[in-house]
Amino acid sequence: MSPFTLRRQAARVVLLNAAGEVLLLEAIDPADRSKGTWWEIPGGGIDPHEDSADAARRELHEETGILEVTVGPCVWIQHAQFTFGGLHFDQHERVHVAWTEDAHEVRPAALELLEAAAFRGHRWWGLDDLLQAPVKVLPHRLREFLPDLVAGRLPDDPLDITHTGGW
Hints:
single chain; 9 strands; 20% helix; globular
């Protein structure tokens, strides 16, 4: 484990297309392949000059190359602590919902070295397929809260989806 903890604010994006599919990125920890692969929503750290919606849009573009989106409100928040790439993270995340018409092809625009080593692919998941698939997902409670977003039911205030258990 890293001798220090990177504490930061982060923004993530639940990107839905017109067919109600969600974009997930397949990843692996390049420093600990024993964790196996998982599927996650795009996102990363918030820069000092950004609000969470701007950071969500920037991170989505950097990690997927997708620009044609409407970024909506922050629908979920979570406090996440994890080790990735040999670094320990302690971050407070704001998760925005966003919409796009098409199931765009993913062509990252600006991956950091660690991200490039971690990302394995992408998939536009249909809700039923994702709910039944025996795969790890991040956020951990994605399957629990995603159906409401796909149905267009957004919370009035962000829901705390912090997960306290292991995988």
